[in-house]
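Try this one yourself first.
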């Protein structure tokens, strides 16, 4: 096994030497070709993914669209080219007391990237998901460690990517796929000297294991693990007074979306003790009771969910508000529980994510206690604040706290569903991710796989096109402190 994995990484590095030279327009063609090949798999892909995950075919039609959409979006990004953040500071030879050299900087790819597929999104966060798309866009070859719970789906997508590689006449090892459930495979690949970075989506324990493997290397590498989050929600009084039925319906759908197997599931909800909070809680329980329970992805997740419920629901001071009882194997029954803020503050076990259709309402005595709870929450992917304009004006301090604990603040909406855009942040302070400075979703995800490189007094003919005097790519660059499209001609400033 070790010899085989060594060969894979050697091949990946060979591919890197050529792939890093591929132009943005060529990479766009490649990423678009991957999307086309995935779409060409047709119903076979959707049905295979559904069979392996217990999720409906309709869900995968949407997920396929998202997967192909983000591939094309990254293609457009790299074809346009400004993402490399080209910066030019021209020379001043007669500067006193010392001459100023010509300095030019841009982002360049790291090298072969190892991607671990996620089980809850077999398409959008797995083989051809955001980690793979952004790494390929940056100029890095990718080695995907396929998830053992959807092997057929992963292999189908892998074959589509390989066809796109051949179609675009790229190095044959720009993309490679590794099967196997062994943790040892992941460790060996993470610690291989030719691995330049790692992308992971999954549990806190899995993400931190990969992170520690990387730190044990002779030369540590960046690991971007997107892990657990309870995605806390603050429910303010006026909003509950005016919109309790609508909010209950929205949050019931959010809690149970994908059988609760979303990393942005609203797992904790905070409110001040009142009749309107009680009314909302009753309405939420009623809405949950009308949503059927479905099978979870696999036995591992179901076992983790049920054991997490057992630990919380039987804890002293925790009241079960609603618990659906459903027959059948792997059923993820929706559960709503309630606890006082005093108990919550005293019991750190209640602060952890329970991955499934579960949410815990924390009832606070007053605004001061709510603020106390808000402050002790650890890093999150999202925080959500539900309030009228009047509510929000009176609670700006809670928004300030939210800035410090989350990568995305949602106002008057639900946290589930992550838009793929230039402004998206899907990440957050630990334990939401291993590096809260970056996102795993959206166009900014490409920045995880690059590093800055500076050219000093380099002859123009040796410079990459992004940094040449005549700007052959026509990209926006920062020149001597000002953004411009040109260098020596009359500049167009932005």
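Now uncover the answer:
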């Amino acid at each position: 096994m070790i010899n085989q994995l060594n060969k894979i990484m050697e091949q990946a590095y060979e591919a890197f030497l050529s792939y890093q030279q591929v132009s943005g327009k060529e990479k766009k063609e490649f990423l678009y070709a991957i999307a086309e090949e995935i779409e060409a798999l047709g119903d076979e892909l959707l049905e295979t993914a559904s069979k392996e995950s217990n999720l409906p075919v309709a869900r995968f039609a949407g997920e396929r669209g998202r997967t192909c959409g983000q591939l094309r979006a990254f293609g457009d990004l790299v074809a346009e080219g400004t993402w490399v953040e080209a910066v030019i500071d021209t020379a001043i030879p007669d500067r006193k007391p010392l001459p100023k050299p010509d300095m030019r900087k841009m982002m360049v790819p790291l090298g072969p990237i190892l991607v671990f597929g996620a089980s809850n999104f077999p398409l959008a966060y797995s083989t051809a998901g955001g980690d793979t798309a952004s790494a390929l866009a940056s100029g890095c070859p990718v080695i995907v460690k396929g998830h053992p719970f959807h092997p057929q789906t992963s292999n189908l997508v892998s074959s589509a990517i390989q066809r796109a590689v051949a179609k675009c006449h790229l190095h044959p090892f720009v993309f490679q796929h590794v099967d196997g459930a062994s943790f040892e495979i992941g460790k060996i690949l993470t610690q291989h000297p030719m691995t330049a970075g790692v992308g992971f989506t999954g549990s806190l324990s899995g993400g931190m294991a990969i992170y520690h493997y990387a730190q044990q290397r002779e030369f540590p590498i960046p690991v971007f693990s997107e892990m657990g989050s309870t995605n806390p929600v603050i429910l303010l009084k006026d909003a509950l007074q005016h919109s309790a039925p609508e909010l209950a319906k929205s949050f019931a759908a959010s809690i149970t979306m994908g059988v609760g197997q979303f990393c942005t599931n609203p797992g904790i909800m905070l409110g001040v003790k009142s009749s309107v909070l009680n009314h909302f809680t009753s309405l939420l329980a009623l809405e949950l009771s009308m949503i059927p329970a479905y099978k979870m992805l696999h036995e591992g997740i179901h076992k983790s969910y049920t054991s997490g419920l057992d630990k919380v629901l039987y804890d002293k001071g925790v009241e079960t508000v609603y618990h659906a009882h459903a027959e059948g194997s792997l059923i993820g029954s929706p559960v709503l529980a309630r606890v006082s803020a005093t108990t919550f503050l005293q019991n750190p076990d209640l602060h952890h994510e329970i991955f499934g259709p579960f949410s815990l309402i924390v009832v606070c005595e007053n605004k001061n206690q709510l603020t106390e709870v808000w402050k002790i929450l650890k890093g999150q992917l999202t925080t959500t604040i539900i309030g009228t304009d009047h509510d929000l004006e009176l609670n700006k301090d809670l928004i300030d706290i939210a800035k410090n604990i989350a990568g995305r603040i949602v106002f008057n909406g639900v946290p589930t569903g992550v838009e793929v855009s230039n402004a998206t942040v899907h990440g957050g302070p630990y334990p939401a991710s291993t590096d809260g400075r970056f996102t795993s979703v959206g166009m900014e995800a490409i920045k995880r796989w690059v590093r800055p490189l500076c050219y000093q007094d380099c002859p123009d003919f040796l410079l990459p096109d992004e940094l040449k005097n005549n700007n052959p790519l026509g990209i926006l660059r920062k020149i001597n402190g000002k953004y411009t499209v040109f260098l020596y001609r009359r500049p167009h400033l932005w």
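Discussion: The first helix runs from residue 2 to 19. Confidence is low (pLDDT under 50) at residues 489-494.
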